[in-house]
Specification:
The protein is an alpha/beta fold. The chain has seven helices and seven strands. It has a three-stranded parallel sheet with strand order 1-2-5. It starts with a strand and ends with a helix.
């Protein structure tokens, strides 16, 4: 069995273990952290992108390190959750294919059909999963791609852009999300953030 954790939640929410009961209805931390502990100990090998994910740095706690010692009050206490130096941990740094990812100014490397496809998608398409349009597509884009999680703070970016006339005069804000439809999400936090995004866009 192999484990590849894109992102363990425990280090993202400060003191979420100590205050798990207050957030259980929305986040189910007790289930998440219990499943994480079982999964990382049951796995034959674990793949991470960096050593910092495992043991952290001098100033930050590693994602796996946070599972060594912690407590869920009135539920259980963990005193030796995971062996951070077990040989099952494998660090495989991410890499990219330079034939596909290259500086924007190397236009000769672009696949023309793909370029036309994305140009149409961004500036011409009018489908249900696109909201808004660009009056001045020649402006410099500010682009972000993330799920509507509160911690990703897409709504904060929308608000900052809406409050800055200087940015609006020189740039376009483009963001890609998992979904932009409230009814398509089963996550209450995501639904709230999507609703907030629409409200901010209408406000600005």
């Amino acid at each position: 069995q192999c484990t590849i954790a894109h992102a363990l939640e425990k280090t993202k929410y400060a003191f979420s273990d100590l205050h798990w009961q207050e957030n259980e209805q929305d986040y189910h931390f007790s289930l998440q952290y219990t499943a994480d502990i079982f999964s990382m100990n049951k796995s034959d090998f674990i793949i991470t992108s960096t050593l910092q994910e495992i043991i952290g740095t001098e100033n930050t706690m590693g994602q796996y390190e946070s599972y060594q010692f912690f407590s869920l009050p009135q539920l259980y206490q963990v005193v030796n959750g995971v062996n951070l130096f077990a040989p099952k941990f494998n660090v495989i740094p991410p890499g990219v294919d330079e034939e596909l990812y290259f500086p924007y100014y190397q236009k000769e490397k672009r696949i023309q059909t793909k370029w036309q496809q994305w140009e149409s998608r961004l500036f011409e398409d009018n489908s249900e999963d696109i909201y808004g349009s660009l009056d001045h597509p020649d402006k410099m884009p500010i682009f972000t791609m993330a799920r509507f999680d509160k911690i990703k703070n897409i709504t904060g970016l929308i608000q900052a852009f809406g409050m800055s006339k200087k940015l609006q005069n020189s740039c376009n804000l483009i963001f890609a999300a998992g979904t932009i439809h409230v009814e398509d999400s089963s996550d209450s936090e995501e639904r709230n953030e999507i609703t907030k995004a629409y409200d901010l866009i209408e406000s600005y």
